[in-house]
Amino acid sequence: MPEAQEQVVDAIPPATLETGITGWLTAQGEWIHNAINDRFQAPMQAIFQPLNQFLSPIPSIWWSLCAVSLFLGAMIWVWSMKKEYVNLDAPSSRWWYDLRIWTVLSMIPHLFVYLYI
Amino acid sequence: MAHADAISLAGIDWFIILVYVIGTFLLGIYFSKFVGSAGDYFIAGKALPFWAIGMSVVVTDIGAVDFVAVAGETYNTGLAVANFDWIGSMPAMVFAAFLFIPYYWRSGVYTIPEFLGRRYNTAVQMIHAAIWGIFLYTMLALMLWITADKFLHTVLGWDEYKVTIGGDTYYATVWGMALITGIYTFSGGLTAVVMTDVIQLVVMFVGGFALLFMSVWEVGGFAAMKEQILAKGPEYQQHFDMLLPHDTPTAFPWTGIVFGLGLVMSTAYMSGNQAIVQRNLGAKSEWDAKGGMLFAGFLKCFIPLLVAVPGLAAILILPGLSDGDQAVPLMIKKLLPPGLRGLMFAALFAALMSSVDSLLNAASTIWTTDLYGRTYRFVKGKPLSERQGLVVGRSFTVFFIITAALLAEWIGSNEGIYKFIQTALSMFQGPVLAILLVGILWKGANQWGGLAGLVLGVGFTFILNNTEGVFPSEDPFLFVAWWSFVFSVIVTLVVSLITPADPPGKSDGLTFTQVLEKDGRIRRIMGGREV
After folding, report:
1. ipTM of the complex
2. Which residues in chain B touch residue A73, judged by CB atoms under 8 angstroms apart?
3. What is the pLDDT of residue B498?
4. Integer angstrom CA distances of residue B146 from A116, B51, B64, B292, B410
């Protein structure tokens, strides 16, 4: 390949050398990405960097507590609802048809993972 | 030509696989006798029990790709990937069971876009339906391609089963899968899909547990495995950590896992994914719809054991693999004896077939109900009849499975197309959950709030996705999901407050504060109390 032609090929971003829909989508995507990044990077960083600085040093015990709270919160929420709403249309009023109990039983194995692994 | 690493199957393995495939096919065909209307075809005539719903939800969610790719990811990075099946499932399933599904079920809709159309307006319905309609179809083609390329070709070395006609290559494996799943989905609709899913889950669990026990046995138990992996060096010290620091460069920081995955992405998936929720819409009662989701959550806690733990064991059994995705195929080859090997393959077939039939059924439902049905209503001034809906639904099923099989190689080989569709869908997850949540919790949410929340939320997601250096993670999709959700909630609330309210009665029976009883009486429930 002549040297001048080689330089032209080098100057073209790799994506534009691809053909078909994939190449076209990639090229357009890169152009849009750069345009948005130039315009929004500074304001977005101003919003999110302080948040990152606050969250990064949080000790690992709080990570597990937050994860476990999600499970516990969901369980408490279900038990806080009216029993008739939770079990509407239940085939029987026996305790093993109570979906609040199902919720707890379904969540216990998951809780075990986050508490003990 | 067979691969060097291809697994050879014994006669007993072939027998097990054939019994499974033929049995599933015949079972699916059997359920065609229950289909006489669009309601029977799309939502199983509202006759599904909780256990079938729960089992079907799990196999729809878990594909053969999970068996191979999750094990591979665990081999490379550790257990954190299993978050998707633990914290990324159960809380979301509880929210889905009690917050969203009762209102979908009671409204009698066939699809989530149809619910959004009733709650907000046609524009919201069409936008949501279009993105899901395209995504489900693309995924269908991709699943068929995975059948041939990633699974049967790579693992079994079935290259020879392809035919070239006029320069085009046709894969017998792709067409075989399309034919089997296509025929029973066409005939039996959602009932056939769900009932074959039940068999597929049983086969998947038996095969998966066989591989789990053999691999853990081989390394001397879970505790011994953990000890040996941690002793391998510093790069393995986080392999058993479920939660990673906020500033980890990986895609799974704890903040992203708890907020982005646990609260937003998983809830959007379990409450807004047509392929998942369609089973609950077909429940025989509201209790079965809720109970099915909870039962699925219980079954899902076993999935990481089946798909992730063998990946951990492979670190010791097959050290130094260049590609983690090789772990499961090589473990099957190394550990499982004839018979169990056939069972494991039947399990992988089951995972693939359940994904293909569910995607096909969900795609045809959305295209029939929301895209074709809504357009028909606009042009003709009347809705599709039940009989017309059935004919159109079956026609879409045939059209989709044939064209997906034809396009499978092209879509599967063009990574850019898959990524484009995947990215487009991911941009909708946070905003759609936001408008669903606000729409169900607050009667005051109006059509303009819903439309603005969806459109501006997608726009905000697009900006976050394309702005570098905002989050510490290299792939911050979990953070993007969370913040786009928060943004869309605010937009929906604000726009609803400043624009004219919807006509009275429009949201009756569709919001958390109002539950429409079967006799038409409105029962108001606020904060768990009837008011």
Report:
1. 0.83
2. 91
3. 95
4. 36, 29, 9, 29, 12
